[in-house]
Amino acid sequence: MADKKIGNSIFRFEQEAGIDSKLGNWGGRKFFGEGEDGNGEDDGGGISFSCEWFSDKERKNKITEAVIGDLVFYRIICNGIPENTRLKFLMYDTDQPLGNTNLNKYQEGIVKNKKVESSVFFGVDYVDYIEDDSGDEIEIYWKVRYNNKEYDIFNSNKNLNLGDDEYYRAIVGEPKKKKEPRYVYTCNCGWVDTSHAFEKTKRKRIDIGADNLWKQIKNESGVKSQWKNGFQVIYSQDIVKLGLSIGVTKEYFVKYGLSLKTKEQIALSIFQEVSLEFEQLQSLHPTSGSSFEPADLVSNLLGFYSVIRPKLTKNYILDNLCKQLGTDKSAKIYKKYPGTFTISKYKNKKFTPRFFDNEYCKNPVFPKEFQEIKPYPKDNDTFRDWIDLFDIHKGIPPITGPK
C-alpha cells in the first residue's frame, strides 16, 4: 500500500495489473491466474501472467504511480498462451466494481512473442471512481478472459497508484459536471487563470474585487481624512472556505481631485501590493503549493486592466492579445512540465508572464496594452497608507480606559 499526495488530497492505491490506462508512474507487475497462491506460479495448466507499466511508448521508463490525465503504456507477459490469441481485459477496483460501462470497457489485445502491448488513457471521467470510493482511493486490478475462463490478474510487487490531478481537470474541464476549463495556456501571456482574471465577485463588500477598488478611487467615495485633503480606500483579497475568510486587507489615503491617469496609477499600486501580500500569505501554509502559481499575478493583472479599460473584454484579451491555445494543446504543455503549478522552480512573483517553451508558440511578446499604467509611488501628500492617528484622530491619541 502506498500513499500519494496530489493537490490537497492523499490517495492510496494497490496496483494489481493493468492494461490500457492513463497512469503516472508504475513499475513491474505480477499477474496470477485464478486459484493461484500469489507467488507467481501458474494455475496448474502452464498459464501465468505478468505485467510492466511505462510512461513512454518505447517502454524504457518503468513507472509505479499515475494521475488523471496520464497516458500509460503496458506490457503483459502471457506464459502458456498460444501466439495470435486475442485476450480481453476489464479493469476492476477492490472496493467497488467498475464494471463494463461506457467508460470502462473491455480492452482487447493479441498475443505476439508471448506478450500483449498497448496503452490506456485515464481521462477526467475516471475521477468519479476516485470520488465515489469509500477511502478516496482506487485499488486497481484486471480480469482477463481466456477460453471462457476469467482470471484475476493481481500485482505481487508495489501498488499501482491512480490519483486525481485537479489542475489537469481545471485545464480540460469536466463536461459531465458542466465545468468549463479554468486554466488556459496563451502564447503571449503564459498561463492564465480565467477565474482570477474575469470572474466578478458576487459578494457585497465594497473592498473586494478590482471593480470595487476602482469605483472607490474614481468616485472618491471613501471616508474623508481629518488630517489631509483626501479620502480612505480599503482593498482586500481573500479566500473563503467553510464560511471562513482568510486574506489581506489594507487601507490607504488618496488625495482628492487627482487626474484620471494618476488615479489609475494609484489603483494599480494598491492592487499589486495587496496581490503580492495575499500570495505571500498563502505561501506560509506548510501544505499549500498554490501561492505564486505561474498564472496568479498575470491573471490578476489582466483582470485589473479589463476593469480600467472596459474595451478589453475577456474574449478580446484571450483571443486577440494573449493568443490562447485550446484545451488539448494547453494540456500537452502542462504534461510537458510536471509540477507546473506547484513546484518552486515554476513560481512567478512578477506581474509579467512566465513562458513555457512549446511547439505552438514562437517568439512570445507580452502585450503592451497590459503595460500602459505604471504604479504610483507612495508619498506623504498624494498616496500613502491610511493612519488612524492622523486621518481619524487628527494627530491626537484617543483617550481610552475607565471613565
What does this structure look like?
The model is unreliable at 1-41 (pLDDT under 50). The protein has helices at residues 127-132, 166-172, 194-198, 210-219, 260-283, 296-308, 314-321, 327-336, 388-391; strands spanning 2-6, 9-13, 15-16, 25-26, 29-31, 48-54, 64-67, 71-79, 86-93, 107-110, 115-121, 140-146, 149-153, 161-163, 183-186, 190-193, 230-241, 244-255, 383-385. The chain folds into two domains: 10-15 and 47-153, Immunoglobulin-like, CATH 2.60.40; 169-370, no CATH class. The chain has nine helices and 19 strands. By secondary structure, it is of the alpha+beta class. Helix 4 (210-219) runs antiparallel to helix 5. The strands form six sheets. Strands 3, 9, 10, 12 and 13 form a five-stranded mixed beta sheet that branches. The protein is elongated and about 95 Å long. A hairpin with a 2-residue loop joins strand 1 (2-6) and strand 2 (9-13).
Overview in brief:
Helix content is 22%, strand content 26%. It is of the alpha+beta class and 403 residues long. The longest helix has 24 residues, at 260-283.
Please write the string of helix (H) and strand (E) elements.
EEEEEEEEEEEHEEEHEEHHEEHHHHEH
The biggest beta sheet reads: 5 strands, mixed
Mean pLDDT: 82
Shape: elongated
